[in-house]
Amino acid sequence: GAGVSQSPRYKVAKRGQDVALRCDPISGHVSLFWYQQALGQGPEFLTYFQNEAQLDKSGLPSDRFFAERPEGSVSTLKIQRTQQEDSAVYLCASSFSPLGQTQYEQYFGPGTRLTVT
Amino acid sequence: KNQVEQSPQSLIILEGKNCTLQCNYTVSPFSNLRWYKQDTGRGPVSLTIMTFSENTKSNGRYTATLDADTKQSSLHITASQLSDSASYICVVSPPQSYTASKLTFGTGTRLQVTL
Known about the structure:
The structure holds 2 protein chains of 2 kinds. Chain A has strands at about 5, 10-15, 20-25, 30-35, 45-50, 55, 65-70, 75-80, 90-95, 105-110, 110-115. Chain A is mostly beta strands. Chain B has strands at about 5, 10-15, 20-25, 30-40, 45-50, 55-60, 60-65, 70-75, 85-95, 105, 110-115. The model of chain B has no long low-confidence stretch (mean pLDDT about 90).
């Protein structure tokens, strides 16, 4: 099991519900990234962790989005009071880079497809 | 406004044929440009990575080119196979001085290889 894993793979939520999406990065990877990918679009950056520190959350679309990585490994992306526009695939990626530098490869998980009805 | 534009949006080719996908970007400066392959229901997987000083990079049947003057890149697929059916995404990275990776993704080209 060497890759990035995400769970659940699919999530259907009613509008207004809270959801939590999990990411298990590759063991030893310091940097962890979350992306949002709308249907037919490329991924868009949400937030970045260096170990347990959330160094960049500039891509989070609203204060309903919250991410954490308390022990510097597994990360959870939480969306409160989900809205229909939150429907998308949420991708997690991890990197060996200690500072998230772009020359290091990012390894992506399969994503969680969130559908808000 | 997306700073990475890809064309065509979708493409259908016969197995065994070659094809070329285009990427135009306005991100400047940049440190490197990647091409990713994304199978349906999967995360993107890197095919090639080029710095701004490189002109071409190959990975098996995939060859990427980069013209930093015109800010264009292309991905050429030779002797296509059914397994090449996927979305191909061009990604531009900011300079290495950035401590957080804010990759700029294109919208992708959806390639379908048929018999």
